[in-house]
Every structure is written in structure tokens, then in C-alpha cells.
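Input sequence (200 aa), recorded before submission:
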Amino acid sequence: MKNLIESKAFPWVAALTVGALMGFLVGPAVTAWLHEAALPFAWQCVLGIVAAGIVGLVIESALSRRPAAVDPDRKLGKIDKVFGTGRVIFTVTPHDQTGRIQFNVTATGISGKRFREELLPMLKEIDGVEWGNPVEPGPGLQRQALKRYTQRREALAKGVVPRQPPIPMERSISGVITAEASLARVIELVEERLGSAQPL
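Predicted structure, C-alpha cell format:
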């Protein structure tokens, strides 16, 4: 069942199934019961298309807002409880220039305001990590994402399942452990706030 829900065909199958049921079974049955008349075939098709579009919209919206897949055994942190599991993940890599440990934090599906006002202050509470400048989507990408979102809404309102997926808005920041910091203490603080690292 889980594999079926996660497959790319699931929104199409669910939307067509519900559309067919509403248009050719439920709609005519309700019309016959309330008005004692038959629902014309053209109206059955319209009802089926509208129902399929609404179901497709709901499923697409739910799938696009769903948290990123994470390891079920991953230790959760304070940030997971604030933003939701999988919204903020991090990887650990060596810094290009110094070779010291670097934390690369990526936030998905979090507004710029929450990223700047909630997430960044929580990260800066971690002693022993020097954080760089955050990387946020530029105005061009934001306009493109808004345009894609508008196109998807219009297509779904017409009962058409859009082909293009939504553009994810990702924000990130990297931090390097300072030379004088205790590695064990920094790792403990990072895991307390961010949970376990996400495997590359």
C-alpha cells in the first residue's frame, strides 16, 4: 500500500477513480433519488472531471507539503519538533580550505521569515560553530516558483493534472567548527538541536 501511495501514478489513479465514481455512479444515483430524473451523460462527464480535478489538487498539495524522507532510526532534535520532521536536515563534510568539520544545514518548505527569525537564531546558539552567510532563493527563482504555482492551480481548477512538479524553495547555511572548540561538545549540541545527520 505504501509503495502504491508513493508511486508517481497514484494521484492519476486516485483522481480518475473518484471522478468516475462521482460522475457515473454517485451523481446519477443522487439525481435519481432527489429529482427522480436521469442525469444527462454530458453532466456526468462534467461532474467526473470536476471531482477528478479536486481530488488531484488535494493529493498533489498533500504530497508537495509532505516532509522529505528521513531515516526512521534517525535521532530527532529540537528543530524537528519546531518545524516538522524532515523539513530541516544537515550533512557533515570537511571544509574545503581548513579541513575542519563543516555542517551543511538545508531547510525545505520553510518561509524566509521563519528561516531568518527562528531557525538561524537556534543555530547560532550552538557554541563552537562559526556560521557563514545563509543562501536563499533569489528573486528570479521565487518569481519562477510563484508562476509555476499559479499555473498548477489554474490547471487543477480546470480539471487537468499538471505535468510540471512544484519548484521546492530551499534555504541553506553552513557552519565550521572553530579550532578552539571541543569536538565532542559541539557534536552533542548539534545533535540536540538538529538531530542526527542525514546520510549523503
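Checked by second reader. The helical segments are 2-6, 10-35, 41-65, 78-83, 112-124, 139-157, 183-194.
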